[in-house]
């Protein structure tokens, strides 16, 4: 059942579990994510990066939603960088959008986020925004401390924009880390205490199970995952290729999808959302 992100995150926040948000980009990854959620009776959020074919993915997910009626899930635009792309996603059938102006000054971030919230809420679509900035793992040591989210600013941001959830920077980064991830749990606890909206953690991959489960316990309700899933998929294909069997393309795709799906199931269990659908 395709629904907006708001009720999913509300339940997760109240009950203290986290929802996995795998990055999907085609029929195989969307079906893998939904079947992982179905098997574990878990809610899930399908995140789609803005540079993908949003219209094609909207159609694919609409088709799949009839096959996975038992799964409460949202289809969310990831890192939408303009008003226009959020409108496109909503027309394509997305139930949620992220508007990311996290590299802009506070007032500009508030202004564009508020516009998107007004438009999206008019048609029952939820909105994620980002305050502070989650950077790239490749530049982790240089960038980690630059964009950490300020709790007082976060309270003001949520009050002024009315966003449904907020991505915060507490020491994670996108992609693989050049260095060891250090999560600012004190900052996270403070954010959870003062910010009235559910909190989102970007850059879940390679952050480590212990860090992630602690982050969920301390108030993160959505964890974005991409790198770990697609590399687990790639490993599945490599393993199939090195088996010595002469495998055709469908078998290799299947091995890749299994790798992606098994890694996702691991995270669903870790975040405590299994059985919550
Ligand atoms: Zn992100």
Task: Describe what is shown at a glance.
With 277 residues, the chain is an alpha/beta fold. The protein contains 11 helices and 8 strands.
Intertermini distance: 11 Å
Spell the H/E element sequence.
HEHEHEHEHEHHEHEHEHH
Which term fits the overall shape? globular
Report mean pLDDT, rounded to a whole number. 97
Task: Give the strand content.
Answer: 5-15%
Q: Please give the CATH architecture.
A: Alpha-Beta Barrel
Count of DSSP helices? 11
Query: In terms of per-residue confidence, which ranges show pLDDT below 50 for 5 or more consecutive residues?
Result: none
CATH topology: TIM Barrel
Q: Tell me the name of the CATH homologous superfamily.
A: Aldolase class I
What can be said about the biggest beta sheet?
A: 8 strands, parallel
Could you tell me which ligands this complex binds, including any ions or cofactors?
Answer: zinc ion
Strand line-up across the major sheet: 1-8-7-6-5-4-3-2
Please give a structural write-up.
With 277 residues, the chain is an alpha/beta fold. It has a single domain (5-271), classed as Aldolase class I (TIM Barrel, Alpha-Beta Barrel), CATH 3.20.20.70. It has helices at residues 5-15, 27-39, 54-67, 83-91, 106-122, 140-143, 151-161, 185-194, 209-217, 227-241, 249-271, and strands spanning 19-22, 44-49, 73-80, 96-99, 126-131, 165-168, 199-201, 220-225. The chain has an eight-stranded parallel sheet, with helices on both faces. The longest helix is centred in the C-terminal third of the chain and has 23 residues, at 249-271. It is globular, with a radius of gyration of 18 Å. The N and C termini lie close together (11 Å). The mean pLDDT is 97. Bound molecules: zinc ion. Zinc ion binds at residues 79, 134, 174, 202, 224. The site of zinc ion has 5 residues, from loops.
